[in-house]
């Protein structure tokens, strides 16, 4: 069965191919050059994931998978949350987002920098069926960038119970514990 991974982020597509069951053929938006991702204007991660999956399934005529991930920082009352990609502005500048996060947490000790990555994964069929699932990973926001792997906030996110950021883990190590893995594993079980 062919399933479309509805993301413009090629790093995420690679990560998902390492997580998803090998029994299916996963296509990316590269195979659908005319498709334009819809605006992520939902109030929640789930709404955004569903918006993307539904639009991709309708356009491709195939089942589609999408997700939305947010970083929730306790000291910031859950921010950036659903606005994680646009935390420092509409340009989705990863470095600006990370700098803003570090500035807002300046002066706080590590134990007050608790955070979690939360992912909501969505599966949509062209006929309208929608299934969603959630996954999370707990950790802390570090004081500086560490690691060269991953993307987004990964170089700042120290995984709880370790002294490593997500960016210091290999893709295989990250895929064993990540919020995205948990969400898509749960989604796969629900789809079965």
Structure described in brief:
The chain is α/β, with parallel strands linked by helices and 192 residues long. It has helices at residues 10-19, 45-60, 94-104, 171-177, 179-191, and strands at residues 2-5, 25-28, 64-73, 80-81, 114-124, 130-141, 157-159.
How would you describe this structure to a colleague?
The protein has 192 residues and is α/β, with parallel strands linked by helices. It has helices spanning 10-19, 45-60, 94-104, 171-177, 179-191, and strands spanning 2-5, 25-28, 64-73, 80-81, 114-124, 130-141, 157-159. It has a single domain (2-191), classed as Maf protein (Alpha-Beta Complex), CATH 3.90.950. Strands 1, 2, 3, 4, 5, 6 and 7 form a seven-stranded mixed sheet that branches. The chain starts with a strand and ends with a helix. The mean pLDDT is 94.
What is the helix content? Answer: 25-40%
Total beta strands: 7
CATH structural architecture: Alpha-Beta Complex
CATH fold topology: Maf protein
Question: Which class of secondary structure composition applies to the elements?
Answer: alpha/beta
Helix-strand topology string: EHEHEEHEEEHH
Q: Which outline best applies?
A: globular
Count of helix runs: 5
The major pleated sheet works out as: 7 strands, mixed
Rg over CA atoms: 16 Å
